[in-house]
Amino acid sequence: MRLHAAMRYSVLNNGTRARPLLLFGTARTVGLGEQHVEAAACALELMHAYSRVHDDLPAMDDDDLRRGKPTCHRAYDEGTALLVGDALQSLAFQLLAGDEALPPPPAVRLRLIELLAEAIGAGGKAGGQSLEAAAQGQQLSVADIEAMYARKTGALIRASVLMAVACAPETEPHLQKALGGFASSVGLGFQIQEDLMDSSAGTPGRRKLTYPAAVGHAAAQRRVDLLYAEALEALRPFGPAADPLRALAGWLRARSD
């Protein structure tokens, strides 16, 4: 089926898989095996792929290429791309509701669905993108840019961590809070780092409102460094158990593509 082929094309695109990796790293930190959260990791990546397919459409960013390959609407067509996004989003929630390997308590399943829905909705990614679209041609304060980024990019990254925590509800509240702080810092740092990489590469696109454009390249890099330092500090209560997350934070900070 053409739709299925387009879905595979959009998901299996050699992305960083940062969100599933963060979920797996968090699972290890709270003592869970990866097999117990694999469906949640897949749901995250499906949701991220959906958002990329719709972001690339002419009505949004109007991109022709993603990671060196034609975007979904260029490889197929705009109607198919819309349906791909819809189908990937539906499949993500289907996995969370029905996968047998996830923790079975209904409260855990509901929490997973709630976290993912919040991350992509009006209070998360969709809301952040709406703020970005409304701000084109305007000057925003650094605080406003960070608030926008926290929704547009940070919300799904934060969900990556909190969904793993939801699968281990016995985790002590202060440790859950620490992981939330880690996720918030990494989420904001991730988007500013994206801006820095785009500006260094001269990547074209409609979006002109970026963190480096607002504060300068050097100040943006200092902000990234501070955010990742805060993320590592948040992991202090876990000791060596959080080494997978520390390694992932180091990799995200050092990446260049």
* Unreliable runs: none
Placed side by side, the strands forming the largest sheet appear as 1-2
How large is the radius of gyration? 18 Å
- Taken from the alpha-carbon principal axes, the silhouette is globular
Topology:
Layout: H1 2-11, H2 18-29, H3 38-55, E1 65-66, E2 69-70, H4 72-75, H5 78-98, H6 106-120, H7 125-134, H8 142-166, H9 173-201, H10 211-215, H11 217-234, H12 243-254
Antiparallel strand pairs: 1-2
Helix pairs in contact: 1-5, 2-3, 2-8, 2-12, 3-5, 3-8, 6-8, 7-8, 8-9, 9-11, 11-12
Give a verbal description of the structure:
The chain has 257 residues and is an all-alpha fold. The chain has a single domain, classed as Farnesyl Diphosphate Synthase. Helix content is 70%, strand content 2%. It is built from twelve helices and two strands, in the order H-H-H-E-E-H-H-H-H-H-H-H-H-H. The mean pLDDT is 93.
Compact description:
With 257 residues, the chain is mostly helical. Helices cover 70% and strands 2% of the residues. Strands 1-2 form a two-stranded antiparallel ribbon.
